[in-house]
Write the structure tokens for this entry.
Amino acid sequence: MSSVRTVLGDLPAERLGVCDAHDHLFFGSPRLPGEELDSRSAARAELAAFRAQGGDAVVQWTPYGLGRRAADLPSLAREAGVHVVAATGLHQDVHYDGATLDGLRHRLAEVFVTELTEGIGTSGVRAGLVKVAGGFHALDAHTRWTMTAAAEAHHATDAPIAVHLELGTGALDVLDLLCGELGVPPQRVILGHLNRAPDGVAHRQAAEAGCWLAFDGPSRAHHATDWRMPEAVRALADAGFGDRLLLGGDTTTAAARSVDGGPGMPYLLRRVRPRLALAVGEELVARILAENPGRAFGVEWR
């Protein structure tokens, strides 16, 4: 039976509910000094605000070494009444120091599998996906290393693989590597940040390959493509790919949280949902939010 691996245990995929398919409760990177998401109380408030808008689940894409605070996730999920999914994986190399990467050099797939099957550190919280990242229009050596390890972890566990596309680029190269060379079924691959590069041809080709397409990160000051997202979603829906689409918020800085004056998690349901409903209809938006995520993140765990 297909299930989503949440921080409170495996959940039948059909029970996931209205889902923010890509966001962060905790996140910290040397590339974003002073903007760390490291407050438990702020994370709880953000989950509560999302829940108040009708949200049921949040998939946290924060990978290894970037402040996941996995031990805090179960209690936050219980207190807010929201299903939370944690991630293993590795981001681009610029987010890590050399010593961290050297320590993982010959055991990365093993780390991913352990975090998926046994738990993250001593927290006992099992990850429900592997998050990796591409580069800008390119797949460098670090990307190939991390994606190879992600594919090994997928083959061992059936875990889905979520991919940060740098500025929305490189989708087809990622699919060539993961699904072509490394043998990952496309229905286990989730491509993130497609809204940042609204290339309809690339979107259509990625959808035809059979993967999941995530439009995540609305209202970012340095990504002026919000206004094109409904048109991109409508084009894919009209082409018959409405059942392959996901939506997320991708809150990565403290200033972006709703509790600190930003759009945050609730914006997805408060503004994006009705805006998209005008473009593609409420029924499809409801399916994108409440049915597609269960199928994307629900697998038959091994």
In short: The chain has a mean pLDDT of 95. The longest helix spans residues 141-157. Residues 3-297 form a domain with the TIM Barrel fold (CATH 3.20.20.140). The two ends are 11 Å apart (CA to CA).
